[in-house]
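RETRY 2/3 - previous attempt timed out on the joint model. Re-submitting the same 718-residue input unchanged.
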Amino acid sequence: MDFVQRKTADSAVDHFLKEAAEKEVPLVWDRYEGSLPQCGFCETGLNCRDCLQGPCISHPFRDQNKVGICGKDKDILGVHSFVRLVVQGVMGYLDQLADFAKGVEAGKGSPKRKQEAIKIIKDVRGMWGDGDTEVMRKFPKALIDGWKATGVYPDGIASALFKVSQKLDGGVGNVEETLLWAFKGALMGCTAQMLQGRLKASVFGDTAPTNVEVNLGVFPKDTPVILLYGHFSPLLKQKIADRAKGKKIKVMGVCTDPFIPPYSFTPVTNYGSQEIPLMTGAVDLIVAGDQCVNPSLTELAKAWKVEIVSTEILNRGDLDTFAKEIVEKAQEAFKARGEVSRDIPSIKESAVMGFSVKDIDVNKVVKAVADGKIKGIAILAGCNNVKFTQDHEIVSLARELLKKDVFCISEGCASVGLAKYGLLNPKQRDASCGKGLSALLSSLGKNVPAVVDLGSCENSGVTDFLISMASAGKKPIKEFPMVACFPEANRTKAVARATWTVAMGIPTYFWPFLPVTGSQKTIEALGRFCEEKFGARLHVVTQKMEYKEKAELLIKSLGRT
Amino acid sequence: MKVIKVDPEKCTQCHTCDLWCGIEIGSEVKELNDAIHEKPQPVPRVHVEGNNFPLHCRHCEVAPCIDACPNGTMRRDPGTGLVYVNEPTCIACWMCVMVCPFGIIAPSPLIHVAVKCDRCRNMEYPICVDVCPTKALVLEEREEGTTWYGYAPKRSY
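RETRY 2/3 succeeded.
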């Protein structure tokens, strides 16, 4: 089967596609084409590998063989497919937090605000234990009471993660019941993300809006470059930056939190093109975590003579020594890689990133919504998915929303994608926004771009923003005209993220559609049932749509209250 | 005449061929996620059963279904040699269903028409061959006068 679609909207990436084709270097798009057609049973969630009697599939077109060997029918298979994604996503957030908190507890960082850090560590312990955390009390009381009444309030890792994961093993729970367990797990992930963000602020200090440059043009021509990939302990990142300081070594990042105050790691590119930085020849050493890192980097790195250091190894040892080794390796690699030519496209864009809720006057936003100056608020999240032209969906969707006076906030990799096209550049703000939105943004500050980046997915900028909206507007989150959209979602963490967004009462659109489509009941439960319980739907849209139609859908959802 | 050759050594019974047959040939919408919810349910023309062997119409050189059909609904395309059902004239007597040595002709669950594989005769390439992930299905020229299955009835029965 052929894959006929423009690969990327990013001209810096496009520059390297031809070279890759000539050198016969397989990239993500080639591997995707090679994997077509993808398994239809997996795509629709009608498969199961949870025991060794299987694997089972439920044929959607046949009357026989509709249940798995253990008796899971189509609907249970569909909802289990959802639970599986949520559990894995939540574990991603828990892993990030656990790694960081363990380091802080062991005294590896020297927290800027020590008392606060100690308190947060106590909260982390509470989260593992009985789920009694200070941080969850930040949510409006009505919302918490609602969660408790439904039973989805995360009460400790045993019930909010272990038990959720065992839903996949069996039991007689129906679709709705099982779905609620997934929400419980997702809210656990939400707690972890909030704690991670707060712990980061207490250890390193608050992040302020920072001017950065993004895209491949940021690479230097004549200095060693360490490229950080994916998520790993912020303490290690800080130590690497400490060691690199004053040594003329640039530390940059891909799919990683760009801000560890006082350092900032320039986001070179985003998820979809994470292989491309290697092709510039300007990378001397890669330091990679596990989350959000493509295993394909190994082969590519060999071709460009780059060493990859994995941070998630057994017996990592002392972080200081590890960081020292990394920096030394980078210096040596730079000398040894003299003959590798650097092909750096001159494409880069400046952006202001790393806002947090205290940098934005939420009252003004609430007032603008109440006065009808803006149509509502859209949360843009998610990274890239090879099933869509890279960045095309999210960027054109954002442009469409901005034109129609929808205040857009973004998080994580979505911000990097938007930044590459100038949507995070304050100078280009008024060109892309409608009148009402433009007035609101300029009242928020001179430095506020069209789309406001609320930090990476390692901190809970968006959740904090929602909480302060609720307290400023004195009404529940679900009564604001808000919508969340994952136009090019990819990771399981995004599924968990979307799930807890729905739990807060914000209608959420997820593209590509979740692998639950084989079960009509699961689709209905994510829609109608969630609407009853939380006041919002997780939309599963299977029809193919242009970005304009998607934007219309989103705007229609804003006016639901 | 080109027909579909099956290599049971390569077949993993993944059911990809019959899933896609259901979408591409059986459904109205031609998209997996919408075809699933289509009523009446799409009927795939390929069956994967038991022994690593997707069952298609073999387009027998001497086809019992054509002989059994009382009103010429079951026909052979003179150009390609492929056997197909001329749906408008089918009277649902199910004679073809009874005589097919491979059991691949089925009554449609809703309308009174026999349903069978026509090797995607109106398409450039059969969909099952196109999607087979292990290449267990290939389109090959069949030599005149030979059969792969060995027991196609002679015309003189």
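The CA atoms of residues 18 and 24 of chain A lie 10 Å apart. Closing ticket.
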